UniProtKB/TrEMBL annotation:
This is DUF2069 domain-containing protein. The lineage of its organism: Bacteria, Pseudomonadati, Pseudomonadota, Gammaproteobacteria, Thiohalobacterales. It comes from the Bacteria. It comes from Thiohalobacter thiocyanaticus. InterPro entries: DUF2069_membrane. The chain crosses the membrane at residues 9-28, 34-55, 62-82, 88-108. Keywords: Membrane, Transmembrane, Transmembrane helix.
């Protein structure tokens, strides 16, 4: 696969994770115990940090953003196990984070000769 395709998949996984979390906690199933704005800030702001570097195709940003992907993957797994009502949303989050992670590794490997 070409680096451009890996990059598109990486962005799709990253932006998909952001979209799923905003939709899940903003509209589809907001938390009754916590303010929606607080939940969206805590879950959404970390995803905005690497966005500029990912949009520009920077390898280093793609590499360190995978640590975030692992954290969001863990979040999805915990929600899959502990929240029967939200399993669909957690499953979608798991798919998007795994896409982000695998595509990130593919992108880093495909662009390693460009240093």
């Amino acid at each position: 696969m070409t680096p451009a395709l890996w990059h598109r998949l990486l962005l799709a996984g990253h932006l998909g994770t952001l979209a799923v979390l905003v939709a899940w906690y903003g509209w589809l199933s907001p938390s009754p115990q916590l303010p929606t704005a607080l939940v969206l800030l805590v879950l959404g702001v970390p995803l905005l940090l690497p966005l500029r570097g990912l949009l520009h195709g920077r390898r280093y940003t793609a590499a360190w953003s995978l640590f975030l992907a692992i954290a969001y993957c863990a979040h999805a797994l915990v929600e899959l196990y502990s929240s029967p009502d939200d399993r669909l949303y957690a499953g979608i989050e798991l798919v998007t984070t795994l896409t982000w992670f695998v595509a990130g590794i593919g992108y880093i490997r495909a662009t390693r000769d460009e240093l």
